[in-house]
Amino acid sequence: MAKKDKSSRLKGFYDLSLEKRRQELIDLGFSTSENLGNFNPETSLPLEIAENMIENVIGTFSLPVGIALNFQVNGCDVLVPMAVEEPSIVAGASFMAKLAREGGGFTAEITDPIMIGQIQILDVKDLSGARDAILDKKEELLANLEDLDPVLDKLGGGPKDLEVRIINNSAIGPFLVIHLLIDVRDAMGANVVNTACERLAPFLADLTGGRVHLRILSNLADRRLARASCIIPVERLAFEDYSGEQVRDGIIEAWAFADSDSYRAATHNKGIMNGIDAVTLVTGNDWRAIEAGAHAYAARFGFYRSLSTWYKNPDGDLAGELELPLALGIVGGATRVHPGAKAALELMDVKTAKELAEIVVCVGLAQNLAALRALATDGIQKGHMQLHARQVAIAAGAEGDQIDQLVEELVKEDKVRIDRAQEILRTWKQDNSKK
Fold it and tell me: Looking at the domain assignment, is residue 6 inside a domain?
């Protein structure tokens, strides 16, 4: 990540023009003109690259890329690129990161990058006996995968363990599932895990006398966890007529709702994923896999609940924690093919998948705090609608200087609606025609 002598506190960054923002990133040493050029619509994903990434390509689709400021992760400042269409996400994460700095920034830790491959075996006559036979031959089975990926092995990765489960199902009866645990290092891991499962399948069929069916990785990567924590000094939570204690307690009460009710937890966790998905997407990672794993992990206790925890620490400050699976990679796939993804990784100055996961989990915690603070005080719409007004103005047909003028009028009236925006534009047009 960025060195400690680089600060992510870029004051007034929001007020700069797009070109001046880029120039500031260059002047401060966060990026280069060439690297930022990979975020230009015409160069971020050339059609010849897109055509080789997926099937039936007819073009590309762009999203805005914004920079979340103020993040300090494990003592290092970092600027965080986020690809997202929803207003207030980048601003919310940046402001919460600013508050977190007052308490020492974010702390993050990542477990080893262990991915799980699943092998389903049907028609096994003696399930218990087959399970014991597999476990007795574990070392021999793993030895069959020694040359799976020489580069991975050289880096300390590769197959690490093997587990066996018996699953009972009313539709097809009981069957065996083998979990193959593989350390994938800086990769997301899908390809190497799937290859390993397919290679091991015939050996398992011979050993159990059963029929091997599915051989596929699991996106519930609960051996590859990312954890983030932060402390927000209670006095820093105060604003307008709200005391710090009121905001702190309101955030904790809002979190408790999500931790107790699945209907609330779904939206609560969506707020966390607003930040996580935005960074996952811009770095070319599989945001769908991350989403699936996160939501499955949220239901690991038998009901769907909050992924985060917020509480008052002994000093009376607000403390927050977030834990979820994060199967992120910086090698292979779109991370090394998409020019914009490569540019995003370079901007963050990450050298390992571990560093990327540390940043991403902290963004998720910041995003969660932004939503909870808004909900516990003014409500989610006040800040969101102010930013949403710009999209409404553009959709209504405003251009140039009209956009800012129309945004100001819509917010002043508290009527951020496209019909009202169009009506105002028509009035302006009529007034100008009379001059």
Answer: no
Total domains present in the chain? 3
Strand partners, 322: 228, 308
> Whole-angstrom Cα distance, residue 190 to residue 290?
12
Report whether pLDDT(308) > 80.
Answer: yes
* Domain end residue (candidates: 378, 399, 414): 378
Statement to judge: residues 294 and 324 lie in one domain? yes
Q: In CATH, what number is assigned to the domain containing residue 67?
A: 3.90.770.10
Predicted TM-score (pTM) above 0.85: yes
* Domain CATH code at residue 173: 3.30.70.420
Instruction: Give the active site residues.
Output: 86, 270, 286, 384
Could you read off the pLDDT of 136-186 as tens digits, one per residue?
999 999 999 988 999 899 999 999 999 999 999 999 999 999 999 999 999
Q: According to the model, what pLDDT value does residue 379 have?
A: 65
Query: Domain boundary residue among 217, 239, 261?
Result: 217
Q: How far apart are CA 272 and CA 360, in angstroms?
A: 10
Q: What is the structure's pLDDT at 381?
A: 60
Q: Which domain holds residue 403?
A: 382-434
Say if CB 259 and CB 306 are below 8 A apart.
yes
